[in-house]
Amino acid sequence: MGKKVVQAMLECFSSMKLISLNAYFGYVFDPLMAFIKEQAASTDVFCFQEMLSNPKEDGGEIACRGRVNVLQEIASRLPGFECVFAPMQDDFDFSPAYPGQTQMGNVIFYKKTFSVTERGSFFIYNDLNTYNGKDYETLGHNAVYLVLGGSSVLTIVNLHGNSEPASKRDTPKRLEQSKKVLDFLRERLGEKIVMGDFNLFPETESIKMFEDEGFHNLIKDYKITTTRGSHMRKLFPEYEHGKYGFQEFADYTFVSSGVAVRSFTVPDVPISDHLPMILEI
Questions:
Q1: Rounded to whole angstroms, how far apart are CA atoms 125 and 96?
Q2: 3-state SS assignment for residue 257
Q3: Using one digit for the tens of pLDDT, what is the confidence trace for 126-184?
Q4: 8 A C-beta contact, residue 23 and residue 51
Q5: Which of 51, 15, 27 is closest to 196 using CA atoms?
Q6: Cα 240 to Cα 281: distance, rounded to the nearest angstrom
Q7: Could you give the count of Cα atoms lying within 13 Å of 227 in the half-sphere of its Cβ?
Q8: Structural domains of the chain sorted by starting position, each given as residue range(s) with its CATH number in brackets
Q9: What share of the chain in percent tops pLDDT 70?
Q10: In the prediction, which pLDDT does 9 show?
Q11: Please, are residues 205 and 170 in contact by the beta-carbon 8 Å criterion?
Q12: How far apart are CA 183 and CA 161, in angstroms?
């Protein structure tokens, strides 16, 4: 299918607004919920990382650093949206243990009015339930995706890269992580958007691989100076003086060349230990 035809099909959407955020398990709960409520009417797609799902919805009884049912909390505030949730780990990091009731993963919420021809997920680092309970490098990480309006229209990928080693530098597994995402995208016709918490520094080869593939790095193009923000410093003041210093970057948005970007912002709002990336096309 020719590029002009693909572009014409994209224009049938008129416009679209997408938000990506590592939600930190809903730890900053009330401001996060207020932000989602404020953005819901004007947003078409939400991509969240670090989601916890607890279908029993008894999370108020469970001690953890966030809300064990934050996925359900968000869903209740987005009645006009469908979601695709991709778990990475069952029973993640709870004390006391709460076996068999929770899952941690990534999710895309999208408006019910969209024509979704495909949705799914794939692992980019380790696998389901590989976390050994101590070493975060053993945690599995995945990408969740949607195809809108047909396989040759628009593919949206939401991913969360592994956080270890904490240096955020290249490793063989991180390079393979980027390769897996790009291999998936090469199989898709049409335009693509990739958003999420990559847990990488801008100068890494793992990031450069997307640029070399022809994707526009909006963090670079729009001269974004941080994706972690001022609230991160309040939550974790010790990071300022830690082994690696304060790391300003983790999150990225990449778009293929045919995606017409209207605006891209990363507002410094206190809703997580990351900042939201807001893309309008």
A1: 27
A2: coil
A3: 999 999 988 999 999 999 999 998 545 899 999 999 999 989 999 999 999 999 999 99
A4: yes
A5: 51
A6: 35
A7: 26
A8: 3-280 (3.60.10.10)
A9: 85
A10: 46
A11: yes
A12: 16
